[in-house]
Amino acid sequence: MIPHMTYPQYRAVRRLVHSCCNYQDGNCILLDDGEGCVCPQSISYSLICRWFRAAVLPLDESLCAALLHQEDMKKCVLCGGWYTPKSNRAKYCPVCAKQERRRKTCERVRRHRAGM
After folding, report:
1. β-pairing, 74-75 with 82-83?
2. Measured on CA atoms in the order 66, 69, 73, 78, is the torsion positive or negative?
3. Mean predicted confidence (pLDDT) in 30-55
């Protein structure tokens, strides 16, 4: 199945295309057979290029999760954003998990000190 993008996702992919090692002056080196061939990823609203999917898209983790792991995604309890969990018990996105861990540690230490 070829994932289709929304306009903001398309704009993010267009920015990432310039990070591809096969991208040169708007053309794709892999598809070059003597004539310049426009990079298909820079003009399409779907993920066509397998090289881009495997090598370049993982540079932007949130975009990669949104496009490739749509069935695996969960909603964060705190911020409501979508993320790909690393385990089946995850409740928070990575950013919120760090904040929640700090908050709970602070609360636990406060209770411990109050009991002394």
Report:
1. antiparallel
2. negative
3. 80
Residue 99: is its pLDDT beyond 90? yes
Q: Collapse the DSSP code of 42 into the 3-class scheme (helix H, G, I; strand E, B; otherwise coil) and give the result.
A: helix
CB contact at 8 A, 107 and 96: no
**CA 54/CA 69 separation, integer angstroms:** 13
In whole angstroms, give the CA distance from residue 91 to residue 27.
42
pTM over cut 0.70 = no
Task: Residue 13: count other Cβ atoms within 10 Å of its Cβ.
Answer: 22
The Cα 28–Cα 92 span in angstroms is 39
Element (H, E) at 23: strand 23-24
> What Rg value do the Cα atoms of the chain yield, rounded?
20
